Amino acid sequence: MIKNLPLLFAAALTLSACGLGDSRLNPFNWFGGAEEEVIEAAPPVDGIEDPRGLVTALTDLTVDRAPGGAIITAYALPQTQGYWDTVLIAENDGRPVDGVLTLQFRATPPFDAQPTGTDRSRQITAVIFLSNQDLEFVRTIEVKSQTNILRARR
């Protein structure tokens, strides 16, 4: 028992470091809050063959740890109600470029004219799960729309 005491003490100290609010060991701190960048024109498509268009504007981005990876949730606000079939599509075949994994938020517009409605009634959501292997070389997750980009950094 006395031989294991230093090992138990070291394990307790390591585990307690995860509880610190800004510790890099704490998996809940691996990605911070979203940062926004406003852009003037739609970003390039980068070879993505998808009939859905980029959403107009992003409102929020969250990255939540999950067993075996992370769940990325993006919220957007299209011009009208009725947008559907939302998806987050990774650019560059899901490979990060200089530590940045770029996703495009795409949605299918309504077939006929729809009322504008309130912001709350127009909000749409897209979610993607990325495994730990997908996130291995990722320092920043970036989600693009037509008018802005949201980023979450480790």
Brief description of this entry?
This protein has two helices and nine strands, in the order αββββββαβββ. It has 154 residues and is mainly beta. It folds into two domains: 26 residues, no CATH class; 123 residues, no CATH class.
Structural description of this entry:
A hairpin with a 2-residue loop joins strand 3 and strand 4 (69-76). The radius of gyration is 19 Å and the shape is elongated. The longest helix has 13 residues, at 5-17. It is built from 2 helices and 9 strands, in the order H-E-E-E-E-E-E-H-E-E-E. By secondary structure, it is mainly beta. The strands form 2 sheets. Strands 1, 2, 5, 6, 8 and 9 form a 6-stranded mixed β-sheet that branches. Strands 3-4-7 form a 3-stranded antiparallel β-sheet, with no helix packed on it. The chain has 2 domains: 1-26, no CATH class; 31-153, no CATH class. The chain has helices spanning 5-17, 119-122, and strands at 34-38, 53-54, 58-66, 69-76, 84-90, 100-108, 124-131, 140-144, 148-153. 11% of the residues lie in helices and 38% in strands.
Number of domains: 2
| Strand and helix order | HEEEEEEHEEE
Report the β-strand fraction as a percent range: 35-45%
| Main sheet: strands, sense, barrel | 6 strands, mixed
- The portion of residues assigned to helices is 10-25%
Q: Globular, elongated, flat, extended or rod-shaped: what is the shape?
A: elongated
The count of DSSP E runs of length 2 or more, i.e. the number of strands, is: 9
Quaternary state, please? single chain
Q: Which value, in Å, is the CA radius of gyration?
A: 19 Å
Secondary-structure-derived class: mainly beta
